[in-house]
User: What shape does this take?
Amino acid sequence: MADDLYKLTALDAVARLRRGEVSPLELIDAAERRHAAVNGAVNALVTPCFERARAAARRLMARPVESRGPLCGLPIGVKDLNDVAGVRTTYGSPIFADNVPAVSDIMVQTLEANGAIVAGMTNTPEFGAGANTFNAVFGETLNPWNPTLNAGGSSGGSAAALAVGIVALATGSDLGGSLRTPAGYCSVVGLRPSPGRVANGPAEQRFNDLSVEGPMARNVADVALMLDAMVGYRAEDPVSLPAPAERFLDAARRKQRPKRIAVSADLGGVTPVDPLTRAGLRQTADKLANAGIEVVEASPDFAGAMEAFYVLRGLGYATNMRALLSKHRDKLKPDVIWNIEQGMALTAERIGKAMLRRSRLYGEMLAFLDQYDLLLAPSACCPPGPIGERWVRRVDGHDFPDYIGWLTLHGVITLTACPALAIPAVFAPDGRPLGVQLVGRPRGEAELLSAGAAIEEILGVAGAVPIDPKPARPL
Assistant: This one.
């Protein structure tokens, strides 16, 4: 049985922890064995900290089981963008290759206070910039379904670690799809919550509401469990929200089917979409329609929204990283330099127009979601590609001029401030996972998770992971 502990869902593991059938130490041992067995094939959990985890578990086990929090001693992975006290935290950058923080960030503090045990750091591209997980410190994270392919990014290490069973829960973050892309590429679940739902920082740019932290797991109920352990107001984060009265897990367990959903492969024509992805979305929509859900081809008007995303994203990079550029330009990858310089070149006119477009889009999205329970779209515009392809250059005959262009499906949703849940949907004929994102109403995580759990049940692919890493095969 000890050799099979890695197969447990997070909910099953927590239930066994509460009943005393397994201890946090046994789960840490299982995670370490699984890491030794499979991490070499995917390079997902790049800085293990099992001895720190055991020390934390012993402290937790000294408390009564009912006071150990919702995670009760469950090992998790933390994306290598979030400080963990006493653990090497590099942000995927050679500049911080030897960085060991003395204090954990707010999100990690919250998780540990709620019974999470950090098992290690998961791989990320440098400063989270990019939807393919590689960096000069740890190298590439490979896709568990085919190691010739990338695992998506920037939370690719977390997604791959979940898919191969090193951990049952992991953290992610999302600015332009960094939770949603790797979830789809690795056939796991990732939630981009509403801004403020998960307190983070402290950061220099405290009022940032584009990039958010969120949970990743192998199924929707486990994501809801983790979200319950992440939420809560923190004064250091001025946009943070109090925990809701009802647990997100209780909402997910209701599995309330949506009555009427909108579906759009390209969000009204704002981006090209690969034919395999279009076919996968159509197959998904047909399954939902056959289950009795009304499915309507419709989308809000996202015209001009991606330009606004470019501007506001660039502004954030310039604000946060200009000092690093002036001091460490030679150690930054070209994509990061490009982001910062794009932001530094912005004019007040462009920034103002972007802010107005975002404001109008929010109102348009509210009106749209008065007509539909949620919006269904692909979790990426194409299936996972070769690991050596640092970003997607071409989709369905369209060339992208930069590494953000192919992320339009994500960027325009980010601007709406709506929560988005990426779940596995189908597999392409060549075996590549194809995921979808479900976009709900602002601050509507409970409703979204409930609908997501119902849709997950209809689609029937949640049990596809964990897997042993698959052998390489040509497409």
